[in-house]
Model the fold of this input.
Amino acid sequence: MASLAQNRNSFKRRLEIGLNSLLLVACSVLVLGVVYTYLVPSRNFQSRLAAPPKGVKIKISGVEWSDSQRTVVLALSSYCHFCTASAGFYKRLQEVARTRGVPIVAVLPQPTDEARSYLENLGISIAVVRHAPLDSLSVSATPTLMMVNSEGVVTDSWIGQLSPKIEKEVISKL
Done:
């Protein structure tokens, strides 16, 4: 009888260890899944976002493309974390653009006064701020930067928070 009780206790102990181990593995997989999903930038997600293709002609109310050889268009949103995080780059871009005579147009889906307030809070002073649905510019996500020629045709575009290397590329195209 004693050995039957010992076998039963031994079985319970092994079962408990096995179930605890299984639970530990399941929790680890769940935690790694959450970390991967929410904390690791997803290259697949960004690759599915398409910046406006070269050659697309865009229209923005009140903007005359022929006034300049090229214009930078910033498609932003005051609700976009990446737009806010990129404010330092936009300040540098604004300074270089100003010295090279390249106008910048900011387009946001928010009302113009809210958009201006958002940009001012970031320390960005852009003269031309427009309200427009971003899909009217073929923009699928913010932030999106576009270089537009004197005919209103997109010559280059970039999407998302840019790496330092890409930031240099954008500035070199001014």
Remarks:
- The mean pLDDT is 87.
- Residues 1-40 form one domain.
- The first helix runs from residue 2 to 38.
- DSSP finds six helices and five strands in the chain.
